[in-house]
């Protein structure tokens, strides 16, 4: 079966077409014929070896990718979950070895797959699962109440955008960062206040919320650098495992999307919000799967707004 992956970890040029074995259906799973796979920063870690789950000598290679859109091709026993063969779906993948989104077909737990948002293209639908689940999980861990204030760094990115839109839907006030060229985008996503991004973003947030915000979601991965923006005893959601140092009584919540990767009702609710226009599905560009190396180069170069998506049918 055709996939895009690596047999030697390295830069974007390490990605190439590889042949991987088909995956077997088990009870509670289904097979998805993949049409589109979103490209995210975690994929770079798989390609480079930073998130390796195998050694280079094992198996057919490592396949990146955490987001798929496609068609249900086959259902395992007890695997219906309200879906039928031929249904358009989206799903979240927890990559391991050759089990990644950049492949023609993939077998997933039924809890990781829901009907695709109506009216969305496959490329648009593929931008939803991983980042929207991550944002929802982060907000649930922060446990703010309507009327409280959330700061979001990395606000112009896909995760940041979902954080803003879900926070506003929860009734929160959002202070978000942006480069000058992204300020209008971040306002359009729903931020109440926009401050300039950078190493001094915590200072800028304190200028508009002198007492400190009630919580912060650090999608820009600035870790300790952004903690001064948060009021004593408040909460911070982090996305690369940073756990803080116990200062000022802050509650630091590392967000791991694999903890909710089979929360089907959560993914379905996010799909519904996308259909309602509460969440914006942002596609930066669609490239043929054979151009995965170029997609990784563009992502690593920075400045991509929305998700680059690979067309697995091309």
Automatic annotation (TrEMBL):
<dbReference type="InterPro" id="IPR036291">
    <property type="entry name" value="NAD(P)-bd_dom_sf"/>
</dbReference>
<dbReference type="InterPro" id="IPR013154">
    <property type="entry name" value="ADH-like_N"/>
</dbReference>
<dbReference type="Pfam" id="PF08240">
    <property type="entry name" value="ADH_N"/>
</dbReference>
<dbReference type="InterPro" id="IPR011032">
    <property type="entry name" value="GroES-like_sf"/>
</dbReference>
<dbReference type="Pfam" id="PF13602">
    <property type="entry name" value="ADH_zinc_N_2"/>
</dbReference>
<keyword id="KW-0560">Oxidoreductase</keyword>
<feature type="domain" description="Enoyl reductase (ER)">
    <location>
        <begin position="10"/>
        <end position="310"/>
    </location>
</feature>
<dbReference type="InterPro" id="IPR020843">
    <property type="entry name" value="ER"/>
</dbReference>
<protein>
    <submittedName>
        <fullName>NADPH:quinone reductase-like Zn-dependent oxidoreductase</fullName>
    </submittedName>
</protein>
<keyword id="KW-0521">NADP</keyword>
């Amino acid at each position: 079966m055709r996939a895009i992956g690596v047999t030697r970890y390295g830069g974007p040029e390490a990605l190439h077409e590889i042949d991987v074995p088909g995956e077997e259906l088990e009870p509670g799973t289904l097979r998805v014929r993949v049409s589109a796979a979103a490209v995210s920063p975690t994929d770079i870690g798989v390609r480079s070896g930073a998130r390796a789950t195998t050694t280079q000598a094992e198996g057919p290679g490592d396949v990146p990718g955490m987001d798929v859109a496609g068609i249900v091709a086959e259902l395992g026993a007890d695997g219906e979950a309200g879906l039928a063969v031929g249904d358009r779906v989206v799903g979240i993948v927890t990559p391991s070895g050759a089990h990644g989104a950049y492949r023609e077909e993939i077998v997933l737990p039924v809890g990781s797959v829901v009907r695709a948002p109506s009216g969305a293209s496959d490329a648009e639908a593929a931008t939803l699962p991983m980042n929207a689940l991550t944002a929802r999980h982060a907000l649930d861990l922060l446990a703010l109440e309507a009327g409280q204030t959330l700061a979001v760094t990395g606000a112009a990115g896909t995760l940041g955008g979902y954080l803003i839109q879900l926070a506003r839907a929860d009734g929160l006030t959002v202070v978000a960062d942006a480069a000058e060229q992204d300020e209008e985008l971040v306002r359009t996503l729903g931020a109440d206040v926009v401050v300039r991004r950078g190493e001094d973003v915590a200072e800028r947030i304190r200028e508009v919320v002198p007492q400190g915000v009630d919580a912060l979601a650090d999608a820009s991965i600035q870790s300790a650098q952004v903690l001064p923006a948060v009021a004593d005893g408040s909460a911070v959601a982090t996305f690369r495992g940073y756990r803080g140092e116990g200062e000022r009584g802050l509650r630091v919540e590392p967000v791991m999307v694999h903890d909710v990767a089979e929360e089907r009702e959560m993914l379905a609710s996010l799909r519904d919000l996308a259909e309602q226009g509460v969440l914006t599905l942002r596609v930066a560009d669609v490239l043929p799967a054979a151009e995965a190396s170029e997609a990784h180069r563009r992502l690593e170069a920075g400045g991509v707004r929305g998700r680059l998506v690979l067309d697995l049918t091309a």
